Amino acid sequence: MKFIDEATIKIYAGDGGNGVATFRREKYEPMGGPSGGDGGRGGSIIIEADRNINTLVDYRYTRTFRAQRGENGRSAECYGAKGEDMVLRVPVGTVISDKASEQMLVDLSEHGQRAQMASGGKGGLGNVHFKSSLNRAPRQCTKGDVGEEFELYLELKVLADVGLLGMPNAGKSTFIRSVSAAKPKVADYPFTTLHPNLGVVRVDTERSFVIADIPGIIEGAAEGAGLGHQFLRHLQRTSLLLHLVDIAPFDEAVDPVYEAKAIVEELRKYDEALYDKPRWLVLNKIDMLQESQEVVKQFVKDYGWKGRVFAISAISGVGCKELTYAIMQHIEENKREAEDALADTGLVNESAASKTVTKKDD
């Protein structure tokens, strides 16, 4: 299945049914009063997050969606049936924005989360509503309201704890194959990865995290060069970035330090918030070096890196287990800090509420 992570669609909620003007015509009531029923409400457009879907390909080719119109009212005060709502299912992690204003409307980040994007029109009133002591035979009725319509922009941002960042052929796909059950394509040419891949890394039976591999980024990506800039959005939800660097390139003319700096600069140009995320340096392919420790020390010195550094070989698995345990520890510490902060906020709110109550009692 082709991976699609953005789409533009038009949605039309159903119009309300019309009210009618009818009168009772029965055997013993040949000239009866008004009996026109109301029209039914039009169907609404609802979008739901579904974890069983992982692409927006369904919305790339079918771009217009219309909910059912409400039925018209009938005689004998029969109300028209409500139009059936239309439910559109999207992958978990889909962000929905208004195409015209570019304003974000909803972020569907949990399975089963729903959002009503367009409301159906109200049904029209039948002539029974216009009966009065002065007007015993009203002939007026109203039409149903028009349903809402919008043009929406759907953008998928995958949900992952860790994101892989690096040049093409840095070994990102090999690394994710080494530490998870994901099987992305691996080859000895650039841009092997054409769309994001997700892998679940299990540290033990009860602890795991999700890692995202995106196509490699090259210099000039922020201006549209290469493929990686199209998928940088998938790193925005991650809590940690792993910057993979090929420390033993086949081409001796390639400078790993220059390429590493170029990647980080592209990240900064694309999104400052993404640039400010916690980032670890992972030097890959140390199995191809004679004096790997010396080369690693020299690289860190030339690069001027102050953060955490890991030297691994993704193809042989050297250093991968230590890296995954460190990532798991980092994620758990972040969750603990977030829970503590939330608990502190709750305590502050609770104490403020108690003060308010005391003040009222006084």
UniProtKB/TrEMBL annotation:
EC id: 3.6.5.-
Q: Where does GTP bind?
A: 166-173, 191-195, 213-216, 284-287, 313-315
| Localization in the cell | Cytoplasm
Residues noted as binding Mg(2+) in the record, renumbered to the chain: S173, T193
PANTHER family of this UniProt entry? DEVELOPMENTALLY REGULATED GTP-BINDING PROTEIN-RELATED, MITOCHONDRIAL RIBOSOME-ASSOCIATED GTPASE 2
Q: How does it assemble?
A: Monomer.
Protein's recorded name: GTPase Obg
Source organism per UniProt: Methylotenera versatilis (strain 301)
